[in-house]
Design brief:
Blueprint: H1 20-30, E1 33-37, E2 42-47, H2 52-69, H3 74-90, H4 92-103, H5 107-131, E3 135-137, E4 143-150, E5 153-157, H6 165-177, E6 180-184, H7 190-202, E7 210-212, H8 217-225, E8 229-235, H9 238-250, E9 254-258, E10 263-267, H10 273-285, E11 295-301, H11 302-317, H12 337-352, E12 356-359, E13 375-378, E14 395-401, H13 404-412, E15 416-417, E16 419-423, H14 427-436, E17 441-444, E18 459-460, E19 463-464, H15 469-472, E20 477-484
Length: 491
């Protein structure tokens, strides 16, 4: 879901950035742990990276804790997790304020994310035992079962755009499975990282069960290579994910990758216009569009295209910019100045390649923070970089199609395959289309979204593996066959 670049170490690797100012901003964003309020560009606090020796002590502590944590009864682990979920609910405003301050999320969305994170933690506390129960097989002779057991210390590299939700969906299932987790959070949300780590301490988790690591990318490579680390989970950009996956594969570590998305939002001619428009705006502007499952490509049947586009444009223009801490604000800043600069560069390139800028496309005037005008692009053709790129912000690209087959083909003509939404009054028709969509998730008459009991993940460049639901807890466990045979059984 977030787009931090794993592995940038020098200017040569940032050669794609022609602007020296952009390079400096990016380097500052990815090579340090610093809270900067994107609403007013004020620096809040910088946190130092830990030393290599401290990192080794942290891994040693995690390994020692794992040996004790894995043998705890499910009920004992669940009690700690339930306390953590309760803490999030009791202190929702405190946790939400950290998020809005550090990455600009609207305060109502921040509160919703805190509560969603609590729901995820509670969900696994209640259901993990059932998900991991022994499965009894029925071989021709004797008996057999499959037992699920923890595998050890896991390392997660997590993004800035959902600072608690991303942690909850990685930590909750794995802690309940008996693993322990070490997490490198994004450099721009250190206060969120610290608050979430403290959450588990306050809930009674032993030291080393959940470890927050303020480490460099070079140190992260060392963590992946460490023999005590048994699995790696990454959420971020495609390029970064490839580097992490290569490193994990080199060291024979199981990995999951939740990467980018360029989700299609398909509206058919029989769709409810008002509902489709409402959900289209939500799907585009949730978290200011800085979401891997945000609607990025609006694919509208010809009969509705002009009307839908005009109404969508009016709704985008009506958004009210302001302090994301205030309830009346409907347009907040992007997460960082670097994110804004990158998005403006993408839009300029799209227009240079022939796209038409319908509205927006520029920094909001007379504002100190990282505010971007809501933007709509049309006439984006194959060959334009915008046709394949992911725009991580308040940028919508509109396409006109004449029938279902064209809509499916356009939706599938993407390197990504995370989510898709289809709006239609004919559910059977929408289901037939959904079966042909190349994505990990298809939602009908609702934007692509997430819930504790729904599996989350994609295909193609959107990554591999699943999080949440009963599937999310299965990724980092050993599925062990136990076979019982008579002594005189045939081989």
């Amino acid at each position: 879901m977030a787009r931090t670049r794993f592995g940038f170490t020098n200017a040569q690797k940032l050669g794609e950035w022609k602007s020296k100012v952009t390079y400096i901003l990016l380097k500052a964003a990815i090579m340090s742990y610093q809270s900067v309020n994107p609403f007013n560009a004020e620096s809040i606090k910088t946190y130092p990276e830990i030393s290599d020796s401290q990192l080794q002590r942290e891994i040693t502590q995690a390994q020692s804790s794992y040996l004790k944590w894995r043998v705890l009864d499910f009920s004992d682990r669940a009690a700690i997790m339930m306390k953590a979920a309760a803490q999030l609910r009791w202190r929702v405003d405190e946790f939400a304020a950290h998020m809005t301050l550090e990455m600009g999320k609207l305060i109502a969305e921040s509160r919703a994310e805190v509560l969603l994170s609590a729901d995820i933690i509670e969900y696994y506390a209640k259901h993990a035992h059932r998900f991991l129960e022994s499965q009894h097989l029925a071989p021709e002779h004797g008996s057999a079962s499959i037992e699920s057991s923890a595998i050890g210390v896991l390392f997660g590299v997590q993004p800035w755009n959902f600072p608690y939700y991303q942690l909850a969906r990685f930590a909750a299932p794995n802690l309940m499975a008996g693993n322990v987790v070490m997490i490198k959070h994004a450099g721009s949300v250190p206060q969120c990282a610290l608050a979430f780590a403290q959450l588990f301490i306050d809930a009674g988790a032993p030291a080393g069960v959940y470890s927050n690591l303020f480490i460099s990318y070079q140190q992260a490579e060392a963590v992946i290579a460490d023999v005590r680390i048994k699995g790696v989970a990454f959420t971020g950009s495609v390029d970064a994910g490839k580097k992490v996956a290569m490193s994990a594969g080199k060291h024979m570590k199981k990995s999951t990758m939740e990467l980018g998305g360029c989700d299609a939002f398909i509206v058919l001619e029989d769709a409810d216009m008002a509902a489709s428009l409402k959900w289209g705006m939500w799907a585009k502007m949730n978290n200011m569009g800085q979401c891997c499952i945000a609607a990025k490509r609006f694919i509208i049947i010809d009969a509705l295209y002009d009307q839908f586009l005009e109404k969508f444009k009016s709704a985008m223009q009506a958004l009210k910019a302001g302090d994301p801490m205030l309830a009346e604000t409907t347009l907040g800043p992007l997460s960082t100045e670097a994110a804004l600069v990158h998005l403006l560069k993408q839009i300029d390139q799209a227009v240079n390649d022939g796209a038409k800028l319908l509205i927006g496309g520029a920094r909001m005037p007379d504002r100190k923070g990282a505010f971007m005008q809501p933007t709509i692009l049309v006439d984006v053709k194959p060959g334009n970089l915008a046709y394949r790129d992911e725009f991580f912000g308040p940028v919508a690209i509109f396409y006109r199609v004449t029938n279902d087959a064209e809509a499916i083909a356009l939706a599938n003509d993407s390197d990504f395959g995370l989510g898709c939404s289809i709006f239609s009054a004919d559910i059977a028709r929408a289901k037939r289309m959904a079966s042909q969509i190349e994505a990990g998730m298809v939602f009908i008459n609702h934007p692509t979204w997430t819930a504790p009991d729904l599996p989350f993940g994609g295909v193609k460049d959107s990554g591999y593996g699943r999080e949440l639901s009963s599937l999310g807890i299965q990724e980092f466990v050993n599925k062990k066959l136990v076979r019982v045979s008579a002594l005189d059984a045939a081989p």
